[in-house]
Amino acid sequence: MTAGARRGRRPGDPAVTRRVILNSARATFAADGYERATIRAIAARAEVDPSLVHHHFGTKEELFVAAHEFPISPAAVRAALEGGEGTLGERVTRLYLTAGLREGGAFESLVRSAMTHPPARAMLRQFLERGVLDTLAPHLGTPDARFRILLAGSHLMGLFMMRRVVGVDALRDVDLNQLVAVVAPTIDRYLTGDLGGVPAAGQPRAGTGPGGR
Amino acid sequence: MTAGARRGRRPGDPAVTRRVILNSARATFAADGYERATIRAIAARAEVDPSLVHHHFGTKEELFVAAHEFPISPAAVRAALEGGEGTLGERVTRLYLTAGLREGGAFESLVRSAMTHPPARAMLRQFLERGVLDTLAPHLGTPDARFRILLAGSHLMGLFMMRRVVGVDALRDVDLNQLVAVVAPTIDRYLTGDLGGVPAAGQPRAGTGPGGR
């Protein structure tokens, strides 16, 4: 039970309920890690019914994203993967480059902790493995989908950090549409193009036997 | 003057001198920012002659890199830009993907501070603008060199973080040579390929007048 949960509680006010659940989620994920944390445990810590957590935030993945104020949600990436204007690469690139970041918010705390505390790093890794990749990979539908999504995602994440967080002139000042035009072909190639036969990670490679390299 | 400098000082031991200078450099950069910090001020705080700082660490840029244990030094990138085996993209990509990172070292602290403290973020930005880009851009020699280097650098930085720091399976487990083969064409395109006429940031664009967008 967090201090915020006890103090701020006014039963019936949805905004308060949401805040209490988000506080409880951050505390539970930090204590238990992403994989072991359950909606039930988060609800218990927040002193609400689990159905209320689902009602407000959907899945555990979505709750993690909301609690840590991710600039880009897997749900938005999923929508971009499914269709819309322009190429797949254009849609995904534009999504990353127009994402918002709250100064001093929970996402900054998450990245900061992940840089220092091995448990926070493990929590972030589990979320990426079990939340993001398990959810997005089927939308790409190829055996190397996880590798492709990480290639594209790490590129866009680095670009986001350098343009929006660090704010280096020569990247910050470039027009959004021009930047999308430059980067989108790379993202298209990473997600759906010919990568020269890189095997899907975690699958045995021909001639090396299971797990061999 | 840092505690370490007073305690650890044994005149004449080069290892001690280096450590005292590195401590002084970190403290001076943090207090003054990258641009305003001088070798003279760093030497004064370390109670050594400025020539000794130059002797041990070269330029201010190189001292900043050494003090913050950057996984990749601009000097190494410069060497990769100048020549060697394979394409430019292959050399730079391999450099990033084989870089070392000391767990709990000064680089982690730097990234962590940059995520939280605006002055630390400004220090990092100044270093990238004045240290990295001013040094590397002439080696590419095009008007949009700064933009190109940031495109490539932010991609490789994101890849490094996701593979080495977060350590997500599908990226961590891919064979280095295969990853270089997949990523190098992107880096070649960003550094020297056709980007469809994106203007160099900071230069007035045709038809918009100075500073217009």
List the helices and strands and how they pair.
The structure is a homodimer of 213-residue chains.
Chain A: H1 3-8, H2 14-36, H3 39-46, H4 50-57, H5 60-67, H6 74-82, H7 88-97, H8 106-116, H9 118-140, H10 145-166, H11 169-172, H12 176-192
Helix pairs in contact in A: 2-3, 2-5, 2-9, 3-4, 6-7, 6-9, 7-12, 8-9, 9-10, 10-12
How far apart are the first and last residues' alpha carbons of chain A, in Å? Answer: 47 Å
The quaternary state of the protein chains shown equals homodimer
> Which range best describes the helical content of chain A: under 10%, 10-25%, 25-40%, 40-55%, 55-70% or over 70%?
55-70%
Beta content of chain A: under 5%
Question: Strand tally of chain A, please?
Answer: 0
Along the chain, the helix and strand elements of chain A come as HHHHHHHHHHHH
Shape of chain A: globular
Low-confidence stretches of chain A: 1-9, 202-213
Global mean pLDDT of chain A: 85
Count of alpha and pi helical runs of chain A: 12
Biggest sheet details of chain A: none
Structural class of chain A: mainly alpha
